[in-house]
Amino acid sequence: MRHTGHVTLNASEQLVVAAAAAAAPSVFNTQPWSFTFTEDGMEVHADPHDAWMPTASAARDVRLSCGAAVFNARASLARRGHGSRVSVLPDAGDPLLVARIAVTDAAPDPVLDELYRWVDSRRTNRYPFRPEGVPADVLALLHDAARREGATLRLLEAEPEYQRMLTSIRHATWTEDEDVREDRDARLSPRAEEPAIPVGNLGPVPRGGRPDDPPVRDMAVGLDLPGRGSAAFEPHPDLAVLETSDDDAGSWIAAGQALQRLLLEATGHGIAASFANQPLEDAELRPDVSGGAAHYGYPQMVLRLGYATEQPPASPRRPLSQVIRRTAA
Ligand SMILES: Cc1cc2nc3c(=O)[nH]c(=O)nc-3n(C[C@H](O)[C@H](O)[C@H](O)COP(=O)(O)O)c2cc1C
């Protein structure tokens, strides 16, 4: 068997890998991470910096976001011809150290290399999707992508599950804490120094409104944002829940990696996604999201999947100088 030795990334590789990690989705675009490069790899730290956390489920959402960043780093390393080995939560004395990624001279994983192609074009897409559903063979690929990272993508195909999910999302939307909503609006307002999510990325205001709200999140309820517009949404979007068998920090990080793997796979097949995590942020509603399922898991993300009608612009990222804590050379 070939010996696999460690590889030290050069300065430009460190920047490329950090940029890929930072392109991951994160809760309300808070980018709650920082990266350290060492002689033999990279560390991903949970780092809420001074970011306001928009949800009551911040601890989970931060780890999910960091898990997605870890996956992008792995894909970027594969593209650069390196192998990688991930240790999740490697230091019991440092719970904010999410993962240590050893960079090795083993052959890169060709699937990760291929998925890297979609890192920059993946978006959270809050625009209406085309009416047709995602083909079963593509859904199977997304299910398999989640499974490879230790999570389950449960499709809500049957009633009463589908309707129950819609009801749950709507209920959570309508009962959301007023202070949380106002705080989020303040960060999206054109008066904010730099809106956390640009107008073009929020998608249109759903037309119609209560009681038929679509399962897409209007991040800026009540804000009248110039240029946003309104639109009717597809009548029956594909909905799915990403689940894990446990509900601890390690599971959230696995769910984040699974999320990013399936989102990149989806992007490669022309499938867009947005999220409706409202019921997961409400401690009372969350147990209902997966509680009625035949196989019970812990829900980590609620996804809407479909064919895009529009490609939103990229949301801004923090400069890499703020995100990289230390370089190896
Ligand atoms: C843990 C987590 C939770 C999220 N929850 C929602 C959500 O409930 N609704 C939504 O529209 N987007 C949600 N997002 C998407 C982020 O808002 C999005 O990733 C961020 O604004 C960056 O934009 P991008 O994904 O287009 O790069 C979530 C992302 C993560 C990682």
Write up this protein.
This protein has 329 residues and is of the alpha+beta class. It has two domains: 118 residues, 3-Layer(aba) Sandwich (NADH Oxidase); 166 residues, NADH Oxidase. The strands form three sheets. A five-stranded mixed β-sheet has the order 3-4-2-1-11. A four-stranded antiparallel β-sheet has the order 5-8-10-9. Strands 6-7 form a two-stranded parallel sheet. The radius of gyration is 19 Å and the shape is globular. The chain binds flavin mononucleotide.
Record the SSE blueprint.
Elements: H1 11-22, E1 33-38, E2 41-46, H2 58-79, E3 83-88, E4 97-104, H3 110-116, H4 136-148, E5 152-155, H5 161-174, H6 178-188, H7 199-202, E6 205-206, E7 230-231, E8 238-244, H8 249-268, E9 271-275, H9 286-291, E10 298-307, H10 320-323, E11 324-326
Parallel strand pairs: 1-11, 6-7
Antiparallel strand pairs: 1-2, 2-4, 3-4, 5-8, 8-10, 9-10
Helix pairs in contact: 1-2, 2-3, 2-8, 4-8
Highest CATH level, the class of the largest domain = Alpha Beta
- The tally of domains stands at 2
Shape: globular
Radius of gyration of CA atoms, rounded to a whole number: 19 Å
CATH overall fold name of the largest domain = NADH Oxidase
Overall residue-averaged pLDDT value: 93
Task: Describe the structure concisely for a colleague.
This protein is an alpha+beta fold. The chain contains ten helices and eleven strands.
